[in-house]
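In response to a reviewer's request, we include the raw inputs and outputs for one of the modeled complexes. The two entities were modeled together in a single run.
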Amino acid sequence: DTGVSQDPRHKITKRGQNVTFRCDPISEHNRLYWYRQTLGQGPEFLTYFQNEAQLEKSRLLSDRFSAERPKGSFSTLEIQRTEQGDSAMYLCASSPPLGGLASPDTQYFGPGTRLTVL
Amino acid sequence: GENVEQHPSTLSVQEGDSAVIKCTYSDSASNYFPWYKQELGKRPQLIIDIRSNVGEKKDQRIAVTLNKTAKHFSLHITETQPEDSAVYFCAASNRQNFVFGPGTRLSVLP
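The model returned the following structure tokens for the whole complex.
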């Protein structure tokens, strides 16, 4: 499968614990996005990377959330001191670079990591 | 920041009828407007998109129209089939920041 992959697919944790999710974008996609989606809602933008640089971060992203993309390939999203309100599906998406054959605007989504905070 | 509204929130149509979903956006800097289909428990899948320099785009039974002046765009599905049943999301983007609408649950009744 050459699509966007995310790990783990499901995570159950207790309130107050830290969790980390991983996203592997499509090879050579230089832009990577993280979203949060709760039931019945559209994906909510969290942050955006171009290569290893984090260029955009939602005001909704509290200081308990941090994302990295150290080598411009895979990315991690960490949530510290989880709260029950953090329960959601966390989606990652990637987009191809400008100047290639594929449209640079198209986002390809991963399957998501479903987080449940007890 | 950008704000995207989407209507209706739910839509039921008879198989073979047409379905129309409308979205409005607020930020004139947005220049890319995709539509995603999401089935229960699955990832969003792009079904059609349009850029701000185009007024209409069609792909078989699916079409999207864009009115930049009024800041609204619409998804049109003709000859609906039961497999079109899903949640549909519109989005507005300036490439760095994608803002999604709240979604429309489409049910196609056989």
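As requested, we also summarize the result in words. The first strand of chain B starts at residue 4 and ends at 7. Chain B touches chain A at residues 6, 32, 34, 42-46, 49, 51, 89, 91, 93, 95-103 (CB under 8 Å).
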